Structure formats: structure tokens, C-alpha cells
Amino acid sequence: MRTLYSETDIATAIEALAPQIVDALGKDFIIAPILNGGFIFAADLARALFRHGADPEIDFLQLASYGDERESSGTIKVVKDLSSPVEGQTVLLVDDVLDSGNSLHFAQRLLMERKAAKVAICVAVNKVRERTHNVTSDFTLFTRDADAFLVGYGMDDAGRRRALPVIGVIE
Question: N or C: more exposed end of the chain, with fewer CB within 10 A?
């Protein structure tokens, strides 16, 4: 594995991104990390948002599409749903990576069907590629080519390497 982004790179990018999110969404919104990958980024982001004047509620949405594979199955299912109603609320979906876009498209559509006032997307890494669905990240730490298989900072390789404090590429 080769490190692409160090702990310092990640922390610096989060501190720069947090005030942009507060400016766009205000101080009162719901952070909804997509589990399992989004929880590490969401924890760091939530603390940075608090330092910049926001006090978001945090609720979790667990979706499954990868299983133990490196390729998305394309079929999304809700494993753990949000515990709070989102009707009339602004929701920030937080995930580790925007790759195929299937999971984030599914989550965004689900929350809009539940009448969320706004659903924004924030990802640690946006992989540049064609996607089946027109889903984009409103807030992004880093942008990469789609051909790299990334690990760390929430991104895993069949369940391993998710807890790495850096973002690396498998070579």
C-alpha cells in the first residue's frame, strides 16, 4: 500500500471544508454517516463542524452493496435505518468514497422520499468516473481517478484496513 493522503493532509482538508459546510447548510442539520465506511470521516467532520459553530444531530444509515467484494453488487439494501424523522430537515450524507454512486443515490432518494428539506452529500474521496445515476458530491476532501483501489479512513479491502488513519492505494 502506498499512502496518498497523510493524517495531516486529511485533518487540514477537513478544517478547510467545515466552514464551507456551515456556510451552505447553517448550524442546525443532521449528519447521516453511511455505515460502515463513513463513520470515521463523519466523526472527524462533526468535531470540525462544531468548532466552526454548528451543532448537528448525528444519526446513522447502514447500507449494504459490497459484501466482502471489491465491486459493488449494484443491489442496495438498508441494514440499519435512521432513528430520527427527516421530514423538513436538512441532511448531510457522509461517506468515505463516491465511486459508482449507487449507495449515495439510493440514500439521497430515500431521504427525499421521506420529505427531507435538503439532502447534501459529503465524501472523503470523489472518484472521477461515469456513473449510472446523476449523483454528485456537494462537499469533497479529495478527488482521485477511478482506477485506484483505496483503503483506510473508512475504506476497506473486504473488511480490512478500514481503520488506517491515512488514505492509501493498493498497488
Answer: C
